[in-house]
Amino acid sequence: MDRPSWAPVDVDLDRPSVARVYDYYLGGSHNFAADRAFGEQVLSVMPAVAALARSNRAFLRRAVRELARQGIRQFLDLGSGIPTVGNVHEVIADAGIDDARVVYVDHDPVAVAHSRAILADTPGTAVVAGDLRDPAEVLAQPLVQDVVDFSRPVAFLLVAVLHFVPDELRPADIVAGYAAAGVPGSHVVLSHAGLDRPLTPAEEDAYQMYRKSPTPLILRSKDEVAALLGDLTLLEPGVVATHAWRPDGDEEPPAEGNAIGSAAVARKD
Fold it and tell me: In a 10 Å sphere around its CB, with 0-12 CB exposed, 13-18 middle and 19+ buried, how is residue 91 labelled?
């Protein structure tokens, strides 16, 4: 295949990337043949995955819109992937807000390079290469410090990423590390794969594909997701199925039995 000019030469484009597979599920164009092939393998056993990805993106839109309505103007999107198809800066622009700042953070070199190309002429945005699993390292990045004023509330977005962090890396401590950097009035926005029932055979097949991928997936129940948020104060309606967090009527809920993720927004008091 022809290598795009923005793709780093040392990145193997024949190896699927979680960020680019997700972009494929969303109907985006920022993915490669290996990403599409992996995505199609998953979709062949569980076609609902694409709808679930769109439901997750709709949750991101609703959460960002709600926090912007409350006056939050700083968003740190951790494990952001490729910022296309309804991402944070687009939601804010659609709300008519022109003084917000958004920092996208990802460790995938292709996602970072592509994000920088996409956002080169977008004011109020920045892209940082960093591993969300190390809050201290991410928060210390000069560009993060330049763009985000940590004396004012910040929204830390951990959307569809912590299910790639195993228990031994203490995901609750990761959440706490970011929350500790925010002043009162800061928020954590979180969504996560998992469910409170046994997997169906199709779900088990899709799950095993991700378990064997370069970025294995970890499923967690709603109670386990709530525990990740520690002593932060949950906004209503708490930890719920992703599509059920303050639905606005402009999306179809997943078919019965297909709600395999949960979401929540929590505030630091």
Answer: buried
Give the whole-angstrom CA distance, residue 64 versus residue 235. Answer: 13
Q: What is the C-alpha to C-alpha distance for residues 51 and 161, in angstroms, rounded to an integer? A: 17
Position 259 scores a pLDDT of 60
Report the alpha-carbon angle 77-172-159, nearest 5: 30
Give residue 49's pLDDT: 76
Name the pLDDT band for 195 (thresholds 50, 70, 90): confident
**Cα–Cα distance, 198 to 138 (Å, whole number):** 36
* 9/151 Cα distance (integer angstroms): 39
CATH of domain 49-200+218-267: 3.40.50.150
Please, what's the largest Cα pairwise distance for the chain? Answer: 51
Q: Is the pTM of this model over 0.90?
A: no
- Residue 108 to residue 88: CA distance in whole angstroms: 19
Distances (CA, A) of 213 to 12, 35, 240: 15, 11, 28
Instruction: Show the beta-strand stretches assigned E in the chain.
Output: 74-78, 101-106, 125-129, 155-159, 187-193, 233-234, 240-241, 261-267
Q: Residue 118 in contact with residue 83, Cβ under 8 Å? A: yes
- pLDDT, one tens digit per residue, over 202-256 is 778 877 887 777 778 888 999 999 999 999 999 999 999 998 999 987 666 665 5
- Write phi, then psi, for 18 (nearest 5 degrees): -55, -45
**Residue-range domain boundaries for the chain:** 49-200+218-267
